[in-house]
């Protein structure tokens, strides 16, 4: 064999090897980019049927859990909430218990009862607040009743002046026979009470009483 043929064979081999290397490089860069720690080989993250949607990691919500989570407030009919407060002896700052619509025993304070008397647009759409009629000013307040504060409510109706107390509207702690119950839950022949205030109004109030372990 002469040298010319040898050179042709060697150069053909070189061209072939360089071509193979370029091809491998192109395939690598195409797949991994100009990086040596290629992620393509690592296991795929777990996905949902939607490929780009990573499955949630939070525990699923328990719909059948009997006691509501501690952060959940109780739901109760407004009249039942006021009634429970009255039956508990109308405490000013002590907690009182009530049973919510799900039958769970809950507790709250008067703080969550007062807004039922001072907030407008509550009992029905466009309703006036009780305190807007039954204001602190007894001279203009119907039935000389002040529904705007704890003291006013406890002082009662038909008061001679700011210093005196009048008729107990809380029925001496008997809710269904109280004037307050009658003027909220039953319709009366006076302005502001001509239709029974929605007895179906439910509100969120209080927290479930933590269950105590009962010994067998
Ligand atoms: C539009 C004004 C108005 C609004 C609002 C109103 N009341 Fe009255 N309320 C009256 C009038 C008028 C009377 C009857 C006064 C009378 O008989 O001299 C009355 C009477 C009462 C009485 C009876 C007092 C008694 O000794 O006879 C109670 C209790 C009472 N209201 C509570 C409430 C509560 C609670 C609310 C809110 C849910 C409320 N009122 C909202 C006007 C209003």
In short:
The protein is of the alpha+beta class and 216 residues long.
Q: Average pLDDT value?
A: 86
Kindly report the spatial arrangement of strands forming the biggest sheet. Answer: 2-3-5
Strand content: 5-15%
Bound molecules: heme C
Bin the helical content.
25-40%
Radius of gyration: 38 Å
Question: What distinguishing features does this structure have?
Answer:
binds heme C, 216 residues, alpha+beta, two-stranded antiparallel sheet, single chain
Protein architecture, described:
This protein has helices spanning 3-32, 78-87, 115-118, 130-133, 150-155, 179-185, and strands spanning 74-77, 96-99, 105-108, 202-205, 207-208. The chain is an alpha+beta fold. It has 2 domains: 1-55; 74-208, no CATH class. Residues 65-70 have low confidence and may be disordered. Heme C (HEC) binds next to helix 4 and helix 6.
Question: What layout of secondary structure does this protein have?
Answer:
Elements lengths: L2 H30 L41 E4 H10 L8 E4 L5 E4 L6 H4 L11 H4 L16 H6 L23 H7 L16 E4 L1 E2 L8
The chain binds heme C (HEC).
């Amino acid at each position: 064999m002469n040298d010319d043929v040898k050179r042709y064979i060697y150069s053909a081999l070189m061209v072939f090897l360089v071509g193979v290397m370029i091809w491998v490089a192109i395939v690598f860069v195409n797949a991994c980019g100009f990086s040596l720690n290629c992620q393509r080989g690592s296991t795929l993250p777990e996905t949902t049927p939607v490929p780009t949607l990573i499955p949630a990691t939070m525990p699923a919500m328990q719909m059948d859990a009997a006691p509501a989570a501690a952060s959940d407030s109780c739901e109760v009919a407004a009249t039942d909430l006021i009634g429970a407060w009255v039956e508990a002896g109308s405490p000013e700052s002590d907690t009182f218990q009530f049973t919510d619509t799900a039958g769970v025993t809950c507790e709250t304070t008067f703080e969550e009862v007062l807004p039922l008397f001072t907030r407008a647009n509550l009992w029905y759409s466009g309703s006036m607040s009780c305190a807007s009629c039954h204001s602190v000013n007894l001279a203009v307040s119907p039935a000389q009743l002040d529904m705007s504060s704890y003291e006013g409510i406890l002082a009662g109706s038909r008061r001679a002046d700011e210093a005196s107390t009048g008729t107990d509207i809380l029925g001496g702690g008997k809710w269904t026979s109280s004037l307050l119950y009658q003027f909220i839950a039953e319709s009366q022949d006076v302005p502001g009470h001509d239709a029974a205030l929605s007895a179906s109004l439910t509100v969120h109030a209080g927290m479930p009483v933590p269950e105590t372990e009962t010994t067998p």
